[in-house]
Amino acid sequence: MTTELPGAPRESAPSLLAPGARVFVAGHRGLVGSALVRRFTADGHEVVTRGRDGLDLRDAAATEAFLRDVRPDAVVLAAAKVGGIMANSTCPVQFLEDNLRIQLSVIAGAHAAGTRRLLFLGSSCIYPKRAPQPIREDALLTGPLEPTNEAYALAKIAGIVQIQSYRRQYGASYISAMPTNLYGPGDNFDLETSHVLPALIRRFHEAGRDRAPEVTLWGSGSPRREFLHVDDLAAACALLLSSYDGDDPVNIGCGEDLTIRELAETVREVTGYQGEIAWDSSKPDGTPRKLLDVSRLASLGFTPRIPLRDGIARTYAWWLGQLPPRA
Ligand SMILES: NC(=O)C1=CN([C@@H]2O[C@H](COP(=O)(O)OP(=O)(O)OC[C@H]3O[C@@H](n4cnc5c(N)ncnc54)[C@H](OP(=O)(O)O)[C@@H]3O)[C@@H](O)[C@H]2O)C=CC1
Ligand SMILES: C[C@H]1O[C@H](OP(=O)(O)OP(=O)(O)OC[C@H]2O[C@@H](n3cnc4c(=O)[nH]c(N)nc43)[C@H](O)[C@@H]2O)[C@@H](O)[C@@H](O)C1=O
Prior knowledge:
Blueprint: E1 22-26, H1 31-42, E2 46-48, H2 60-70, E3 74-77, H3 85-90, H4 92-112, E4 117-121, H5 150-170, E5 173-179, E6 181-183, H6 196-209, E7 214-218, E8 224-225, E9 227-229, H7 230-243, E10 250-252, E11 258-259, H8 260-271, E12 276-280, H9 295-299, H10 308-322
Helix pairs in contact: 1-7, 2-4, 4-5, 6-8, 8-10
The structure holds NADPH dihydro-nicotinamide-adenine-dinucleotide phosphate (NDP) and ligand F7E.
The ligand C[C@H]1O[C@H](OP(=O)(O)OP(=O)(O)OC[C@H]2O[C@@H](n3cnc4c(=O)[nH]c(N)nc43)[C@H](O)[C@@H]2O)[C@@H](O)[C@@H](O)C1=O binds at residues 83-85, 88, 123, 125, 149, 152, 181, 194-196, 199, 217-219, 223, 225, 260, 283-286.
């Protein structure tokens, strides 16, 4: 279905991000930020970064001073407190407060510094737990959230409203995007805090290495998730920055999902593990399904390039390359 898209460019519209623009990627050492640096560098932009050791983005005064000094043409906000279902469940205070503070600092600081373009990254968990599938952008605030990540989701929803408020009050050309579950090189493989895909790669690899007869995974295996390779996400972000200027957030996904059980089978095959899979029902399942409706992004010309199985194989190879010898 094609819908009229507020703020969408016409065929001949000039790019909203000039060639060689100076882009500040906040969170450049993370999964998403590192992919954005690769992408914007390849596109010929001047990429500016600053590590957390040099600038804590929760510090509003320091962040504004940094942005006034650097004067970026565009900011991509990929710095956040991020984690999988267990980290979200056990540390809701940090997921709420760190993200609210980072968003307040960076978005207000960019406006004060005269930054013309800004892309804020939310997450598919902002939508109601029982939203109709696939989830359209207008499902926002239509029902209760998934409890395991409510604090994080509420911080992200505040970010969307902050962006919309800067647009409404100041005419700022700031936008929001809502990515689905992401994976790829640079992901977090810590079993306590990671998302499911890197956790599965690590669990099956280590079980194969140790000749373990069984791998235990969390929950029932029945929840469905949609996964997008982070290089596809970076391409979508570049497209949005150059061509989208609307009030509404834009979903970023591949348009297909699978059960965690099916994902586990795929990761098992990629890693070559031969043993059994057990399920620990004492661990949370989280939301039953969150497949995004990506027709708005598709209407802008985005097509994901990296099939899930290839992306998993590439991520596994990348992670193996990070391990110390004999790990
Ligand atoms: N991963 C996923 O599946 C999804 C991610 N997203 C969104 O994408 C964005 C990026 O996520 P992702 O790359 O996965 O997360 P990561 O945890 O991999 O990276 C987050 C980055 O933010 C930085 N950061 C965190 N807190 C601060 C701070 N106080 N000051 C300065 N820098 C800070 C981290 O720095 P350091 O390296 O020092 O820790 C890190 O570089 C987030 O907004 C997230 O909500 C959305 C949907 C799915
Ligand atoms: C991106 C997204 O990420 C989070 O939401 P989530 O998708 O529920 O998170 P997840 O990737 O950790 O789990 C997905 C599913 O997988 C199951 N599962 C099995 N075995 C393991 C396992 O070993 N580790 C993990 N982490 N999960 C496992 C797990 O039980 C669940 O059913 C939130 O941060 C949310 O805020 C958010 O935005």
